[in-house]
Amino acid sequence: MANTTAHRFIHFGTGGWGAEWCREFLPRLVRSGRLQPAAAVDINPDHLRNAVEDYGIDPDHCYTDPAEAFARAEADLVILSTPPEPREELVRMAAERGLDILSEKPLAATMDDCVRIYGTVQRAGVKMAVTMSHRFDQDEQSLQHLVKSGRLGKLGAVVGRFTDSRGRAGGYRRVGRVKEVLLIHGSVHHFDILRALSQSNAARVYARTWNPPGVELSGNSSTFVIVEMENGVRCQYEGAFANAATLNGWEHEYFRAECEEGTAILNNRQLTVLRGGHKRKWEVERLPLLQRPTWMNEWLAEQFLDWREGGPAMETSIEDSMQCHALLYAAVESAETGQPVEVQTFLQRHLEAIPE
Ligand SMILES: NC(=O)c1ccc[n+]([C@@H]2O[C@H](COP(=O)([O-])OP(=O)(O)OC[C@H]3O[C@@H](n4cnc5c(N)ncnc54)[C@H](O)[C@@H]3O)[C@@H](O)[C@H]2O)c1
Question: Structure pTM?
């Protein structure tokens, strides 16, 4: 990669999960000189302190008004770690100025917003990627690598589980605002992993959502989902934000890949292959996890800079993310109607509605 000039960025949303961007994901890239802070923006001025303290932006370059930041800052790209609702407007302003965009998931709060964002990015010809971070965690990458290697033969089915316990703040903050809060803010990661493991886009999805007994939330916190992939792989997924006990919380999810010559199980960050098992006599193979210096958001930020410097397009480019979000919002439609949804028809119907 020839270009060694620092990429100047405007960071929108420096509190909440954005505080993790300030503290964990960006400082090393700033210190190494690959990234240079041009502006930090948060509608809550108290949250701007995170950017000042953690990656050292000059307080004079902190703003509470996105339009003012766009007008004043000299930048090459934006990082969006706001909630999804303001995303469309922020993408429009960035794209008008030719800035590339790295955005948190979900891409937007509705499928209509997603396709409008997609149209804006296509017309402007800028690069955009979504940080589908959990697909790029060490344990998930290790399972994906094993399945893709073909060592276990053809993949037939995937079973996934994310179940967290009530009382944790993570999933609850938006329950008053988002009806399918688990699907939109949690399961989107797991849909993305189902696509990556099966190496296919979704053909159809059927989803049911609810709240467990005794849990009174306005948004649905539990789900069972069945997905059929275009290449014939079948997927079954269970998700919960508010069970009594956590079985497989964040970064400790369960995925089982049923392959021709082995059952690969990822469970609480341990990867095992089982074969046989008649009378409980399995042939058990424990596999080490892959190693590399960075994972998840920090690695995705590096990939984004590599892409800007002429490297390969990111796996989670907006084009790829449209398939992930089509599966997500088709699942939301299925949960609402009680009917299975044809995902590619659902996506086409929305794409045709993109304004010129
Ligand atoms: N990848 C992951 O694992 C992961 C984990 C948690 C959250 N997230 C995602 O990160 C995003 C943010 O989530 P959150 O829980 O931090 O949300 P949040 O509501 O706490 O908001 C984050 C920050 O954005 C600011 N903000 C809101 N609107 C803004 C605007 N128009 N301009 C500038 N700043 C604005 C808020 O003041 C806050 O400081 C969501 O899309 C969420 O799904 C991802």
Answer: 0.95
Q: What is the pLDDT of residues 248-274, one digit of tens each?
A: 999 999 999 999 999 999 999 999 999
- What are 112-142's pLDDT values in tens digits? 999 999 999 999 999 999 999 999 999 999 9
Is the C-beta atom of 15 inside 6 A of ligand 1? yes
Pure H helices in the chain? 17-20, 27-31, 48-55, 66-72, 87-96, 111-124, 138-149, 181-182, 188-198, 296-308, 318-337, 343-351
CATH of the domain at 306: 3.40.50.720
186 Cβ inside 6 Å of ligand 1? no
Whether residue 172 is contained in a domain is answered as yes
One domain for residues 140 and 227: yes
Q: Which atom of ligand 1 is nearest to the CA of 132?
A: 1
Ligand 1: residue of 49, 62, 81 to mutate (most ligand atoms within 8 A of CB) is: 81
Instruction: Please state whether beta strands 77-80 and 100-104 pair in parallel, antiparallel, or not at all (unpaired).
Output: parallel
Residue 327, domain member (yes or no): no
pLDDT exceeds cutoff 90 at 166: no
Paired strand residues for 80: 12, 103
Q: Provide the residue count of the chain.
A: 356
| Residue 323 forms part of a structural domain | no
Read off the pLDDT of each residue in 327-356 and give the average, rounded to a whole number: 94
Tell me the three state secondary structure of residue 326.
helix
**Domain that includes residue 113, residue range:** 7-133+296-317
Q: Which of 159, 133, 137 is nearest to 264 (CA)?
A: 159
Same domain? For 243 and 165 the reply is: yes
Mean pLDDT of 140-153: 98
> Looking at the structure, do residues 16 and 107 belong to the same domain, yes or no?
yes
Give the pLDDT of residue 323. 98
